[in-house]
Amino acid sequence: MNHKSRLLASTVLAMGLTAPAIAQDVPAGASDDVLKIGLVYTLSGPPAALGEQARDGFLLAAEKIGELGGMKTEIIIVDDEGKPDLAAQKANELVLRDNVDFVVGPIFSNILMAIVQPVTSTGTVLISTNAGTSTLAGEACNPNFYTTSYQNDQNHEVMGAYAQAQGYNNVFLMTPNYQAGKDSQAGFKNSYKGGTAGEIYTELGQLDFSSELAQIAAFQPDAVFTFMPGGMGVNLVKQYSQAGLSGIPFLSAFTVDETTLPATQDAAVGMLGGANWAPDMDNAANKEFVDGYIAKYGAVPGTYAMQAYDAAQLINSAVAKVGGDLTDRAALHAAIKEADFDSPRGDFSFGKNNFPIQDFYLVEAVKREDGMYGTSVKEKIFDDYVDNYADQCKM
Amino acid sequence: MMNLFVLQLLNGVQLGVLLFLIAAGLTLVFGIMDVINLAHGVLYMVGAYLIATFAAATGSFWWGFLLMLPAAVLVGLILEFVVMRRLYARSHLDQVLATFGLVMIATEAVKIIWGTAPLSVPMPDVFSGSIPLMGPLKYPVYRIAIIVAGLAVGLGLFVMVNYTRVGMLLRAGATNRSTVSALGVDINRLFAVVFTLGAVLACLAGALVAPILSVDTGMGESVLILTFVVVVIGGIGSVKGAFLGALLVAVVDTVGGVFGPIWLREIMDPAAAGQTGRVLAPMLVYILMAVILSVKPAGLFGRTA
Predict the structure, then answer these.
(1) Looking at chain A, which residue has its C-alpha nearest residue B276?
(2) Alpha carbons A14 and B96: distance in angstroms, whole number
(3) ipTM at complex level
(4) Hey, where are the domains in chain B?
């Protein structure tokens, strides 16, 4: 080994040793005068519709505001393809190569768990606009992690509370047989204390529900509760109405929403869901958001779009508060915590685990006046609702 | 419980009719041409994609259906001419490898042409409701329409196989191929007819389920295994056997799939019961196959060589 290469090697080594130490506090890109934001969403495969809504919601806000926080803004969009390993790799690239100041996304909880370490360990702020796993809300809460959505259990708890309030005593539960499906039934039963007509776990990705629908028809339960995201939900809803079961209330979470309604249309009208917002909420910020989204993309926005829209507003408000100085991390975090923006959903503040404290509603699928389909607020179920894991967060 | 049984029986018959449409082609191709065609499930998928495309282009299920049929004939003829024709003289291993390759090529091609997002096919308005059965029970009209359509095709096939000249050649071919060809029958043309017929039936099955399922690339593989079970139970080369086998397999599968977990729930927690039931239901089908084969080694209507 000659002199030059030895010098090079020791330099590389020295950089390797010191770089993480700096990164603990201030990410590499914080001192330049460009605000860089990386969006990580699932933009291919069957669930792409969800990621596209979120991306569009974020871009809508960014376009409306122009320069976020008064800084020159650069947005880098990456597709995680629904693969956690790929997502982790792309998140690393965003943080280490592109030196982004914020990472926004993803849609799915397994992707979130894969990117949370690579992003937050460098001091970069991660804002989830959909996934909100219980661990990150509870014992593994993280000062560099915020979410503008909800804790995953909450929408299921809304439906449980509604079923309880209706005095149902015989509810049929049906979810796919994987972790989120089991969490869903547990979340429902957190707030529902009545009896069940059946607790069924279907195969993940099942498309023909004739057997399950036959059981529902035979048992004639007070109501059905289900969690069937994506294509499963589209098929279930269509087959449910074809089977003539529309007389039995259909309670759901993440099943009947603006991403599936274009496919199910009239078949879903009247079905109930739990959500933190609906496009017909009556406030100025919501009107601006929904009208802007429909004008730009020709579709009704769902919660995925709304929550991403709020993430852009959140970044805008926080960066403006610190005057574009991203190197003072304590000030930046304090500014984010203030959540000083008008959310389309109305009340919004951060709890101690950086998860939102917000209201939850019973929503119903309707055909809108403009001929498109969307959800509509029926009644408020929870006011300023805090998730069940916040107490476990030591932060 | 009785209500549930009746509903599941209807669901079983509906699935059975679909399995029959797919299995009829498979059993003829295997019985007469002695070709193992793993790509048969692909044809089922292609049928669904064809109707999805045509229905979207014309805005009507019926036009989509009518256009799907000639397209399916074309797909069958092209596949026979380009691939199958080269496999007749090859060993079964070569056939399995080649048709398995075809499955992968077709699946990728479908992804490239139509994308990975599932497509949906509008249900014809006439069939979109449900009819009351007994008490509060209702059954979707469209599923009844599938049963009727499947039975009609079955009847047509029965007449064709038993009372026409082509049918006579088919039966003769399934029994003793070399004698048929020695008697001066153009065996190549017969094979092309058989393969195309099978392809059209599989496409038809795919087109029929398209409005109740979403159309995606995995749909072919999910039915192929059950179809092979049907062919083995029914007896290779026998259309009658495929019909009875399909109904038997489907009814055992659907009724077992529901009543298994219900009985198991008495002794286990629901998640475990649901999972065990789902594992047990397909096992029932194979147990059925084992029992039938132990009594009749060539299947219900198969001829021992």
Answers:
(1) A201
(2) 58
(3) 0.74
(4) 10-215
